[in-house]
C-alpha cells in the first residue's frame, strides 16, 4: 500500500524546500552565472574597471600552449587517481568485509584519512617525501633513485597521485564496504556450493552487484579530482616544477589570483565547468547502461 505525506497547509512543502533552494541558488547558480558574465569582460587586477570584450578571453586562452598542457596533465592525473583510489578501496573493502579479529578497529583506521583536509594531506605527504627533510626520501635515495619532486616533473606527479589517492581511498572504501555488506550472503554461498572459486564469485557475482556503487563512486571521484585536489596541489608542488603539475583547476587560481587575469580565469572556470558537466553526462549516458540495479 502506497503511503503519502499529507500537509495541513499547501505552502508548507514549499517552505520546507525553500532553504535548500536558497542555498543552491546563492552558492551554486549565482556564482556560476557571475563567472560566465565575467568571462566576457576584461578587468584590471583589482576588479575596479571592466570592459566587455566578448569571446576575446576564450580566443586568448585557446592560443596558449600552457592551457593544452594543463588539459593533458589533468587527464593523466584524474585517470591515475580514479583508477588507484577505486581499485585500492575495493581491495581493502573486500578484505575488511571478512570475519577479522579487531575488524572494527581496522575499518575505523581506514576511514580516518577522509577527515583530513586536502591541504593538510598535501603537507603530510610533502614532509614524508621532501628531497632533503623527508623520512621516506632517504630510503628511496638509498635504492639508487635520485628522488626530487621539487625539480623532477615525473616525481612530482607521482607524489601528487599518491597523496590525492590516499585522501580519496577512505571515502570509496566506506561505500564499497556498505555495498558488500548489502549483498545477500545466501547468493555467495549458493555460488560456492556450485563450485565457484573466490575469484570467479567475485567477478561474476559480487562485482556486478556492486555496479551501482561503482558507478556512483566513479562520478564522485572524477569531480573530486577536478576540483577538490586543488589544496593538495597547492601544498605539494604549487603547480611546479615549471608548471608540469598544473591542472585546470589550479591554473584558474594561478592566472586569476596570482596573475591578476580575472577575465581569463573566469573563462577557464566556465570551460572547466562545461568539461565536468560533459563528463558526467557521458557517464550517465553510456556507463550507466552497464549498471545492474
Automatic annotation (TrEMBL):
Its main location: membrane. It is a multi-pass membrane protein. The chain crosses the membrane at residues 12-32, 67-93, 114-136, 156-180, 201-227, 266-287. GO terms for cellular component: plasma membrane. InterPro entries: MetI-like (IPR000515), MetI-like_sf (IPR035906), UgpAE/MalFG_permease (IPR050809). Keywords: Cell inner membrane, Cell membrane, Membrane, Transmembrane, Transmembrane helix, Transport. GO terms for biological process: transmembrane transport. PROSITE patterns: ABC_TM1. Residues 71-283 form the ABC transmembrane type-1 domain. SUPFAM superfamilies: MetI-like. It is found in: Cell inner membrane; Cell membrane. It comes from the Bacteria. Part of the ABC transporter complex UgpBAEC involved in sn-glycerol-3-phosphate (G3P) import. Probably responsible for the translocation of the substrate across the membrane. NCBIfam families: PRK10561.1. Belongs to the binding-protein-dependent transport system permease family. The complex is composed of two ATP-binding proteins (UgpC), two transmembrane proteins (UgpA and UgpE) and a solute-binding protein (UgpB). This is sn-glycerol-3-phosphate transport system permease protein UgpA. It comes from Microvirga aerilata.
Amino acid at each position: 500500500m502506497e503511503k503519502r505525506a499529507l500537509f495541513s497547509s499547501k505552502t508548507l512543502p514549499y517552505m520546507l524546500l525553500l532553504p535548500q533552494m536558497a542555498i543552491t541558488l546563492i552558492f551554486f547558480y549565482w556564482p556560476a552565472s557571475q563567472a560566465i558574465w565575467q568571462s566576457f569582460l576584461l578587468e584590471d587586477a583589482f576588479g575596479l574597471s571592466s570592459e566587455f570584450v566578448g569571446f576575446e578571453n576564450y580566443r586568448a586562452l585557446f592560443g596558449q600552449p600552457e592551457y593544452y598542457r594543463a588539459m593533458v596533465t589533468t587527464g593523466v592525473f584524474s585517470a591515475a587517481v580514479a583508477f588507484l583510489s577505486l581499485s585500492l578501496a575495493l581491495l581493502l573493502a573486500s578484505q575488511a568485509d571478512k570475519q577479522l579479529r579487531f575488524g572494527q578497529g581496522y575499518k575505523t583506521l581506514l576511514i580516518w584519512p577522509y577527515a583530513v583536509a586536502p591541504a593538510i594531506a598535501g603537507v603530510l605527504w610533502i614532509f614524508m617525501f621532501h628531497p632533503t627533510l623527508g623520512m621516506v626520501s632517504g630510503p628511496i635515495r638509498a635504492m639508487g633513485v635520485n628522488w626530487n619532486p621539487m625539480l623532477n616533473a615525473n616525481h612530482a606527479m607521482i607524489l601528487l597521485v599518491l597523496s590525492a589517492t590516499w585522501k580519496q581511498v577512505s571515502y570509496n572504501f566506506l561505500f564499497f564496504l556498505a555495498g558488500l555488506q548489502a549483498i545477500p550472503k545466501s547468493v555467495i554461498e549458493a555460488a560456492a556450493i556450485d563450485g565457484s572459486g573466490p575469484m570467479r564469485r567475485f567477478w561474476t557475482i559480487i562485482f556486478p552487484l556492486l555496479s551501482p556503487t561503482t558507478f556512483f563512486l566513479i562520478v564522485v571521484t572524477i569531480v573530486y579530482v577536478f576540483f577538490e585536489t586543488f589544496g593538495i596541489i597547492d601544498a605539494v608542488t604549487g603547480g611546479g616544477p615549471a608548471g608540469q603539475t598544473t591542472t585546470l583547476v589550479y591554473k584558474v587560481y594561478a592566472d586569476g589570483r596570482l596573475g591578476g587575469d580575472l577575465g581569463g580565469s573566469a573563462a577557464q572556470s566556465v570551460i572547466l565547468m562545461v568539461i565536468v558537466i560533459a563528463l558526467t553526462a557521458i557517464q550517465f549516458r553510456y556507463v550507466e547502461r552497464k549498471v545492474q540495479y
